[in-house]
Amino acid sequence: MRKVSLRNLGAHKLRLFLTVLAVVLGTAFVTGSFVFTDTLKKTFDQIFTGDSQGVDVRVVAENQASLGVPLDLADQIATLPDVRDSIKYAGGQVILIKDGSAVQTGGAPSQGQPYFPPEAAIGQPIEMVSGEPPSREGEVIINTSGMERAGLEVGDEVDVLVPNSGTVTVTVTGTYDLPVDVGGFIGVQFIEQQALELFSDGDHVTRLDLAAAEGVSQDELRDQVAALVPDGFEVLSGSEARDNQQNELEQNLSFINYFLLAFGAIALVVGTFIIYNTFAMIVAQRLREMALLRAIGASRKQISRSVIFEALVVGIIGSVLGLAAGVGIAYGLRIVLDATGLGLPGGALALEPRTVIVALAVGILVTIVSAYAPARRASRIPPVAAMREENSSASDSTRARTLIGAVIGVPALALLIWGTEYTGQAGALRVGIGAGLLILAVLLATPGLSKPAIGALGVLSKPFGATGKLARTNAIRNPRRTAATAFALTLGLTLVTVIGVLGNSAKVSIDDLIDQGVEADYVLSGPQMTGVPGVVAPAVERVRGVEKAAALKIAPGFIDGQNVTGTSLVGGVDGVLEVPMIDGSSDLDGRSVMLDEATSERFGLAIGDTASIERPSRDGTVDAEVIGIFERNSLTAAMVLSDEAMDALIPAFVQTTIFVMVVAEDGTDPAGLRESIEQAVEPFVVVQVMDREEFKNSQAQQINLILSLLYALLALAVVIAVLGIINTLALSVVERRREIGMLRAVGMHRKQVRRTIYIESALIAVFGAALGVALGVLFGWAFVETLRDEGLRILAVPWGQVVLMLVGSAIVGVLAALWPANRAARTKPLEAIADL
Predict the structure, then answer these.
(1) Residue 509 backbone phi and psi in degrees, to 5
(2) Is 559 helix (H, G, I), strand (E, B) or coil?
């Protein structure tokens, strides 16, 4: 039987290719995601190892929002007898400005750092490539790749923008090399004293690195230092510091990994329908062959095992090819991201044994599971019944499946609707479970739905006369096959529609929120990583015609040990933002705070109560009076702090400004004022001046960027679905070879045969697309309802996109049918009729 199976695969090479291709696409995406993230992790591990090389103990503040490690504490620690050497590190983000333009890093860090000469460095000192180290204020050295990216040479002058200190002009005295190529990374090293002035308040450093005296272990020195350090600081051994950095990286990369794996899973699920459909059709076409094998002594187990063995062979071939394709995808993804300027570290691709095992296991298991049901069904058909001609196209009743689908679908729909009564994670979880069950219900009921649905769509085929009627009949003759073909497209377009509804609703909701909530005339923004430099707001407020330039800052804090994100608007929200108040006042003065309704209920805080807000550095609390309760919105976070409360919570030097809201004086010429503001922020280069319409467009662009990425990844599922239609039609042509021959014999022309296949494919594609769009709109509405507290208050269905998808599906159906239709048209009547 194994020999029969292998020969059968070899005799139908096209069928084998189409089935293998479905497995390849799914496993390639899973493999590519693992290889890509493993490569990044491996390279970053090397970077972290170099960063902490020679460090035996590291002292850092528990929270990055604090000023860092006090210098007096650092000096005290450095005097411990078991400390051989110490380094006080003060560094932070910078932006390199060349010829009036910011040097783009493509998302890689651009860091200002202190330079330590070899005699003062802990571990391996940096390797100078050219020039001399900095020796005085105003001199810097920059890594070689950063110099090349900026187009600089030794001796050039360049401006360096430090977000909280302003812009300094420096001279490049030399270049140095990094142990690992870090893509677009730029490292600007100043003398130690200037780094302290630029990146701290002068009394703190970012971290303290220690080297142990000879014979003292890392753990011993760590314990000594920990006994001296007060609460609010972490004391880590060198190995613990490296582990922390690596764990943080893994958490950051896990999002990318889960994101890519989710779409790999979608591709596999869609591919599963194609593989299942393919094996179901293969079994249907081979019923007579299997009946003959049963008649000459083959047992039921041998028949089912032969089909599963074929699936095993297909799974192995597809998984191996998918593994190779996944490595290619990871390589191509890195090339594409590098070409777009995204600064990623270089290094060889990492193919871990885990990746190989997962890819092979997933691909093989999916294929075998997909083939199990057809194999079992084939083994249960009696030999004599299978030899009858009509069995080659017979189909089991769909009544039972439709009934089961209805039994699952009704409570699933109820759960989905019930989930919309909740918001946040609770609502999303209920809606997600309901949506999953409803998809399962639709999958079971699709064969029963296909007959009435395609019957109704048959109106579209009426203009084509007899060929249109024949196409409609062919589409509903085998409901299981039609359903499996259509559902692959249904699943893909369901996801596309859900994302479209969420994205469009987000854009419309944000537009409405800005129209209703932003009273400022102009909004100033900066890079996402750094925000707006802290010195911008005071500079703009000095511009003639500006009544107010309020910096919108983010304020992380804790209430009762639970994280609560807040914002602060310098000078208060009045006249700048329209905050929808429920109770109390928005007149923030003294040490006061406003809370949104959910946060006030969560902590039992009312007007007049005192909120004890724990500082991010965990070195005390800030007591602020609750003066107002407002509706939750996307312009402010859960709490809005007064200026005094903000400064008490987070030191001014490390506060991050998200936007600067500019209010014009009455009677000021808008065009003239904008020009004056642009001149004021010109030295800061990275600051963008926007009116309200431009601000809305900028927010929409961010959503469009995310949507484009999601659509690009979901396109894989749609491509697989299209391949499934091609696969099904090609096999259907083989299955109906004698029928097509008969039609040709009684006078049907080749172009009529092609037209019949085209129309049949278009009807199946439109049926699957319509079902997917309907589910997508329903799920999109439900998820928008659960996100109403996050600012998505307006449901906006992209009807233009919906119509485009339906029309596009009909076109895709015709295109998918081109090759199968031409193959059918070439059928020779007499040979087909004589074929047994």
Answers:
(1) -65, -40
(2) strand
Output the DSSP codes for 752-806.
HHHHHHHHHHHHHHHHHHHHHHHHHHHHHHHHHHHTGGGT-------HHHHHHHH
Q: Using the 8-state DSSP alphabet, how is residue 577 labeled?
A: B
The one-character DSSP state at 266 is H
Cβ contacts of 739 within 8 Å, gap of 6 or more: none
Angle (CA) 452-458-464 rounded to 5° is 165
- Residues whose CB is less than 8 angstroms from the CB of residue 588 and which lie 6 or more positions away in sequence, other chains included: 572, 573, 594, 627, 640, 641, 642, 643
- Report d(CA 568, CA 553) in Å as an integer: 5
SS3 annotation, 497-520: HHHHHHHHHHHHHHHHHHHHHECC
Cβ atoms of 52 and 179 closer than 8 Å: no
CB atoms under 10 Å from CB of 117, counted, come to 13
Single-letter amino acid, residue 641 = L
In Å, the largest CA–CA distance within the chain is: 104
Reported as type and span, the H/E element at residue 157 is strand 157-162
Q: Is the dihedral of CA 439, 440, 443, 449 positive or negative?
A: negative
Q: What is the CATH number of domain 527-686?
A: 2.40.70
DSSP characters for 322-364?
HHHHHHHHHHHHHHHHHHTT-----------HHHHHHHHHHHH
CB 412 within 8 A of CB 430: no
How far is residue 124's CA from residue 146's CA, in Å, rounded to a whole number?
21
Rounded-to-integer distance, Cα 187 and Cα 357, Å: 39
Q: How many residues does the chain have?
A: 836
With the C-alpha atoms ordered 288, 293, 299, 303, is the resulting torsion angle positive or negative?
A: negative
> Which of 23-27, 685-689, 701-705 has the weakest average pLDDT?
23-27
- Helix, strand, coil shares, percent, the chain, to 5: 60, 15, 25
CB 151 within 8 A of CB 123: no
Give residue-wise pLDDT tens across range 439-478.
999 988 988 888 888 888 888 888 888 888 888 888 888 7
Whole-number pLDDT of residue 286: 66
Domain spans, the chain: 1-66+232-394, 91-199, 450-518+693-836, 527-686
Q: Which residue carries 């001296």 as its tokens?
A: 228
What's the rounded Cα separation, in Å, for the pair 713 and 255? 15
Residues 343, 776: Cα–Cα separation, whole Å: 36
φ, ψ of residue 13 to 5 degrees: the values are -65, -40
- Give 353's pLDDT tier (boundaries 50, 70, 90): confident
Rounded Cα distance, 673 and 195, in Å:
36
Q: Cα–Cα distance between 128 and 121 in angstroms, integer?
A: 14
Residue in 403, 170, 182, 376 with CA at minimum distance from that of residue 280: 376
CA 243 to chain centre: 25
Return the minimum-mean-pLDDT range out of 12-21, 545-554, 637-646: 12-21
Contact assessment for residue 500 and residue 776, using Cβ atoms and an 8 Å cutoff: yes
